[in-house]
Design goal:
Layout: H1 3-16, H2 22-37, E1 44-45, H3 48-55, H4 60-72, E2 77-79, E3 89-91, E4 99-100, E5 106-107, H5 111-132, H6 141-150, H7 155-167, E6 171-172, E7 176-177, H8 181-203
Helix pairs in contact: 1-5, 2-3, 2-4, 6-7
Length: about 220
């Protein structure tokens, strides 16, 4: 069992799977450690308390939900036991790198090959992350106008937003590149609402900061 290749492949799949959360990954690693302790058999029994403790999962409902998720997503084979004296059975697909030669024997990769495989997997993951984090900017002003219109904001506000960020090269504070202009536009709308609220409140107050609707019949 080549556990280095196995983990490299599994974590590469994890990085591509948006369904997973940290609890799923923590549970898988706890199961992997249990598998490792038992010397990587085809199937092995688990103890719920031990796995929950190793994976730092405090809720039984979360534990069972994650097990069923990992089973349905083909990361593990989960065979639950209804016998209180017998643990559930788990099977983890082996991702081995040993190769068969012409004489029928198997050869394990060298340390240099394993290191090379790890570096390639790491580069592939980084490449994927870089592609997903490309700067997302509007194609033109019309795209911004449509975005604001769908949220029932006036065209003038959309033009203000476009002219402002287009003039500073689509950078927050003129320094940090915008990764998704939709979020920046929504923040612009929130700030506009806050400014409007401040103006509304200030119009109801005089220079002495007393409310114009004050009841002067009340004693001081």
């Amino acid at each position: 069992m080549n556990y280095i290749k196995h983990l490299n492949t599994v974590f590469q799949q994890f990085s591509m799977d948006s369904r997973l959360n940290p609890t799923h990954i923590s549970l898988y690693m706890a199961l992997f450690q249990y598998w490792n302790i038992n010397r990587f058999p085809d199937e092995f029994y688990i103890n719920r308390e031990d796995i929950m403790k190793m994976s730092k999962i405090g809720s039984k409902a979360t534990y069972h939900r994650c097990l069923k998720n990992m089973h349905s997503w083909k990361y593990i084979r989960y065979l639950p036991s209804h016998n209180p004296y017998k643990g559930s059975k788990i099977r983890l697909p082996k991702l081995d790198t040993s190769s068969e030669t012409s004489d029928g024997t198997t050869t394990e990769p060298t340390t240099e090959q394993l290191v090379g495989q790890a570096l390639v997997s790491y580069k592939n993951i980084n490449k994927h992350i870089t592609n997903t984090n490309k700067v997302k900017l509007p194609k033109d002003k019309n795209e911004v106008l449509i975005f604001f219109e769908k949220r029932k904001w006036p065209e003038l506000e959309a033009e203000k937003f476009f002219n402002h960020y287009n003039g500073i090269g689509w950078k927050v504070g003129g320094k940090i590149e915008i990764k998704d202009w939709h979020y920046t536009a929504e923040n612009w709308m929130l700030k506009s609402k806050e400014i409007e609220m401040v103006k509304t409140v200030s119009q109801k107050r005089d220079n002495l900061k007393t409310s114009k609707t004050k009841n002067y019949g009340q004693p001081l």
